Amino acid sequence: MEPRIKNTTPQPDLTKAVNLLYKTAFSAGVPKVVLELVHLRASQINGCAPCADSGARAMRQAGESDDRLFAVPVWRETPYFTEPERAALNLAEYATRMADNPDPVPDAVWDEAAKHFTEEQLSAIVLWIATTNFFNRINVTTRQQAPQNWG
């Protein structure tokens, strides 16, 4: 499959905006691993190859185990994730699959996340899920590929 747009170099204003989103999400006191997990899970759900690839590589570079990385798609069935991580992953799944549910983000999902994160942290998690979904939709629509720099 060939990319529909080959030059994906962002415009300067877009780069500034993305940097601000990143700074905002990552400065709210949410553990970085939580933000990386929600990014990876949303990207997997959306079929975004470059984001899933970069997300897994970033987590591995940060010292994540293969057990955890390989289990993200089946996080409910494994013992590898903490309760706060599980709450964030569940929130990411619901916030990503909004059209699939009559109640897109049920109170129980939100309430569980709120047990583990402050309001500021929840805002950052939601912002990061939305940012991930934004880039996933651009990459999938334009058929961007994961880089071929294995090794």
From TrEMBL:
<feature type="domain" description="Carboxymuconolactone decarboxylase-like">
    <location>
        <begin position="12"/>
        <end position="93"/>
    </location>
</feature>
<dbReference type="InterPro" id="IPR004675">
    <property type="entry name" value="AhpD_core"/>
</dbReference>
<dbReference type="InterPro" id="IPR029032">
    <property type="entry name" value="AhpD-like"/>
</dbReference>
<dbReference type="InterPro" id="IPR003779">
    <property type="entry name" value="CMD-like"/>
</dbReference>
<dbReference type="Pfam" id="PF02627">
    <property type="entry name" value="CMD"/>
</dbReference>
<protein>
    <submittedName>
        <fullName>Carboxymuconolactone decarboxylase family protein</fullName>
    </submittedName>
</protein>
